[in-house]
TrEMBL record:
Pfam families: ABC1. InterPro entries: ABC1_dom, Kinase-like_dom_sf, Prot_kinase_dom, UbiB_kinase. The chain crosses the membrane at residues 502-523, 535-557. Keywords: Membrane, Transmembrane, Transmembrane helix, Ubiquinone. Belongs to the protein kinase superfamily. ADCK protein kinase family. This is Ubiquinone biosynthesis protein. Residues 131-454 form the Protein kinase domain. It comes from the Bacteria. It comes from Domibacillus enclensis. GO terms for molecular function: ATP binding; protein kinase activity.
Length: 561
């Protein structure tokens, strides 16, 4: 146990040293790409002296941010991809360049990959594989994929997490959290956007993506619920899958990009467009588990004409309540009901009080842009992104699951339009609305909701007599109790801290005045040429006290500021 604790302390020490070296480098790269103004606004310039040097300010946009993130490495490239989905926080001029971040990396040597595979499998490669190709099918910043075959001849794709990537990501995420904490202490902008919460969400998403067991579980969930015969989800082999290694069925096909789409007949393209649209809509509104990143690179046109859906590292899940809330939003949108839609948007959660009238006004203005357009002709993905932006402008926190829905709609819609320009995801939403509505009023669903309601009502009714009896006894005894719970937010704590600092400063100034008055009185009783040491001692004491007072005064001033 002692050895493990020592090793843990040593690892923590190494991480802290790495943090001290890495943090200035991160801020320096952002400053180099023109973000010195943002660094100052976030309160980081005072904490990292490097940024105080002269740096040329630029009118930066998403393209400069993309370059900075690429220079900083895999963790920050993932951060850029994550931020590209936060259309409730960033405008398209920022999110679109970030969405172009390429998650590619040089291939790792096969010997290093082979060693990891053997460690994860717990046996030599030849004992459970017929072969494993040395040339990878793809190499990304976190994982690398190789084609192989099991002993029974089944061809598989093996995805291995890159060796040595865990401490790099852990250190970078730790630094991001520290910088976010500093920014929220020093910047109102950082507090408004909840910067620490954004980094926490990013860290959680990255942790899920790095855990291949979770990806395997999500892929199996989608596969089990798949009802569309034109869409195929490869089989997962859980007996060989670990946290660092994913083994799944190899499917032969080509990415669904422009040149591949152009080779298809019009009827095939229409069938695939409808199959893909209905699959994603069913996953979102009915199944509650959906592929959140259905871009062409994750869609393969298989040799038998079906679409293969791969890479489930970014998968969303919606509870029943969230599915109902989302469908209600779409029903309100279809009816052009801004009042209902504003109430539903508020249910998503607000970071601070929201003026409902102004929110409803802004939603009405946003909706006015679609009044003369049939819902079937609307681009659903882009429309949801705009709605999230309106909500974000009112400090309403859009749940990450809804943000994933918006991104899934946006990406699948782009693919569907490329397959069949005449098709529309919004039109299919309208067609599916009937099925969703009938499902909500189905006798089984209504019976389930009734049971839930009466269960909660029974629990409340059981507690009610005791609460009433206790309340009446208190009133009869003339000692009613009123309990209040005050939550001290950051602004309140800062005001209290500033008041305390002012009080302490006043006490220090009073003490300084008394001490200096005593020193001057003692100096007045001595002659500077009398040869007495008392005068010199008093003079030195006055100088030292003045220096100490000015130092404390400066530190207190910075604290109050």
């Amino acid at each position: 146990m002692m050895e493990q604790n020592d090793g843990s302390r040593e690892g923590d020490f190494v991480v802290k040293i790495g943090t001290l070296r890495r943090a200035p480098e991160i801020v320096a790269v952002f400053a180099k790409h023109g973000f010195a103004g943002y660094i100052k606004d976030l309160g980081l310039a005072e904490k990292i002296p490097f940024t105080r040097r002269g740096v040329k300010e630029q009118n930066v946009k998403g393209e400069q941010l993309r370059r900075a993130l690429e220079e900083l490495g895999p963790t920050f490239m993932k951060l850029g991809q994550f931020l590209s989905t936060r259309t409730d926080l960033l405008p398209p001029s920022w999110t679109e360049p970030l969405a172009k971040l390429q998650n590619s990396a040089p291939a790792m040597p096969f010997e290093a990959i082979k060693q990891i595979v053997e460690i994860e499998a717990g046996q030599p490669l030849d004992d459970w594989l017929v072969y494993m190709e040395e040339m990878p099918l793809g190499a990304a910043s976190i994982g690398q994929v190789h084609r192989a075959a099991l002993k029974d001849g089944t061809e598989v794709a093996i995805k291995i997490r890159r060796p040595g990537i865990e401490p790099v990501i852990r250190n970078d995420v730790s630094i991001l959290r520290q910088l976010a904490s500093i920014a929220e202490r020093n910047s109102e902008l950082a507090r408004q956007v909840s910067l620490k919460a954004i980094i926490d969400d990013f860290a959680a998403a990255l942790g899920r993506e790095m855990n291949y067991r979770m990806e395997a579980m999500e892929a199996e969930g989608v596969r089990d619920l798949m009802k569309e015969p034109r869409i195929y989800v490869p089989r997962i082999y859980p007996e060989w899958t670990t946290e660092r290694m994913l083994v799944m069925e190899f499917v032969s096909g080509r990415s669904l990009r422009g040149d591949v789409i152009n080779e298809l007949h019009a009827e095939e393209r229409q069938d695939l467009a409808r199959a893909l649209s209905e699959t994603v809509l069913r996953q979102v509104f009915i199944d509650g588990i959906f592929h959140a990143d259905p871009h062409p690179g994750n869609l393969l046109l298989l040799n038998d004409g079906r679409l293969g859906l791969i890479d489930f590292g970014n998968t969303g899940r919606l509870s029943e309540d969230m599915r109902h809330l989302l469908s209600d939003c779409l029903f309100a949108l279809a009816d052009r009901d801004a009042a209902s839609l504003s109430i539903l948007v508020l249910e998503m959660g607000a970071r601070k009080p929201v003026d409902r009238r102004i929110l409803q006004r802004d939603i009405s203005r946003w909706m006015a842009g679609y009044l003369d357009i049939e819902l079937a002709d609307v681009q659903m993905g882009a429309m949801l992104q705009e709605l999230f932006s309106v909500a974000g402008s009112h400090h309403i926190t859009i749940p990450k699951d809804f943000v994933q829905v918006g991104q899934a709609f946006l990406k699948v819609e782009q693919t569907v339009i490329a397959l069949d320009p005449g098709s529309s995801l919004s039109g299919m939403v309208r067609d599916m609305a009937h099925e969703v509505l009938m499902g909500r009023i189905h006798p089984k669903e209504m019976m389930r909701e009734s049971r839930s309601f009466f269960r909660l009502f029974k629990m409340a009714a059981t507690k009610l007599p005791g609460i009433l009896n206790e309340t009446l006894n208190e009133w009869e005894g003339g000692q009613p109790k009123l309990k209040m719970h005050l939550t001290a937010d950051d602004n309140m704590m800062r005001r209290i801290e500033r008041m305390a600092s002012l009080i302490v400063l006043s006490v220090i100034m009073l003490a300084f005045s008394i001490i200096m008055a005593g020193i001057f009185v003692s100096m007045g009783n001595q002659s500077p040429i009398s040869g007495s040491n008392t005068y010199i001692i008093a003079l030195i004491t006055a100088v030292v006290m003045t220096i100490l007072f000015m130092t404390v005064l400066y530190l207190m001033w910075r604290k109050i500021k």
